[in-house]
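Researcher: Good morning. I'm working through a list of sequences from a screen, and I'd like to move beyond sequence-only analysis. For each chain I'm collecting a predicted structure so we can compare shapes side by side. This is the next one on the list. No need for commentary yet; just the structure.
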Amino acid sequence: MNRRLVIMRHAHSSRDNPNLADHERPLDERGLRDSPRVAKQILSRGWKPDHISVSSSLRTIQTLENLGPELSEIPKSIEERLYHASLETLLSVATSIPENTTQMIISHNPGCEMLLEKLSGELEIMPTASVALMMERNGRWHLLDLIRPKNLG
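Model: Good morning. Structure tokens for this chain:
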């Protein structure tokens, strides 16, 4: 195995309170429903990461917590730099993944889509709670699979 990267866009968040700063928006009912369903798929497909880097926003942290104990108990780092991260920042995370490990990033769009496209050359839409599995082989990244909550039935 070479390096694997699991890219997740945070689950759907609430815009009900216009007085909240963007960083403080919580998940809404849809986000709370979708994230555990996606987590089951991550685990059943063998994508369990060795480490999770998560944006410091409330909605990304709640997404992680709502993935369930098997994923939320994985070693993690909450990183301010992942809050609406630039492509360069996300690329630095991807290129620092140790060999033979799986790293997960929980972040925001457009960064998640831009990272996926930059690494794989494929343009994919990542609605909230979507997850992509990337693998690096011989110095090239490949998109292996993509989970979108609406396709889970």
